[in-house]
Prior knowledge:
Structural class: alpha/beta
Amino acid sequence: MTDSAASIDTTRFIECNGGAYPVRIEYQWLNPERVDAPIALFLHEGLGSIALWKGWPQQLCDRLNCRGLVYSRPGYGRSTPRRSGERWPVEFLHRQAQEVLPAFLDALGVDAEERSHMWLIGHSDGGTIALLYASAFPEALAGLAVMAPHLFVEPMTVEGIEKARSTYETTSFRDKLQAYHDDVDSAFYGWNDAWLNPAFLQWDITEELSSIRRPLLAIQGYDDEYASMLQIDKIKAAVDHAQLVKLTQCRHSPHRDATDEVNDAIAAFVRAHRG
């Protein structure tokens, strides 16, 4: 067993308030022996889970000398799936940031002092959740790094999500995704139906970001198939102290498409702002 593998805790489950109803959340600590180290909390993409992150959170936590906290949001991975017939509302990302995440941290006993030193690392929908959390609780984190976050809906976003639906329903993509979720349809259609809701076209969180006080790093690839560089440009316009990293030959998953560049950027960012 490698040192890295030895520092990964077993997957655990905890009950907490999921907003509309109680849920069981799958979570995992990385480097749990570093009890005095700050927490790096990872927020996965719209079809993600603990398993879909693969080894990247561990790699980054080792680089940052942090404890890691990874979890699957309700509806994903081995966490409580959506209830039959449930459709997530337009504000589902707000609920994850302002209700589910704080309830999850409460259930784990992560107190206000630990939260004030906590770094959020979010990808795609997880990046949006990180931004919404930082705007709602501006003192309850040390800083955040977001990759390919969504602030508003672009035509290319809708086109990409429509294409994902067709791929899911006509190819082997569903079978591949099933390896990462106990209820793969819960994960896919929860995300897909919410983003393709016509009411979602008016969704825009840009104005909410002005309350973010902590250090903020935003990373985007020029070849992102779901959104343009305007997403992080608007972050900079709303949060003057935000730092931007724009990557060439990078699509919607910077931590997979440009791993070294992303790790270097996040490590330098955290190092510069860590008290």
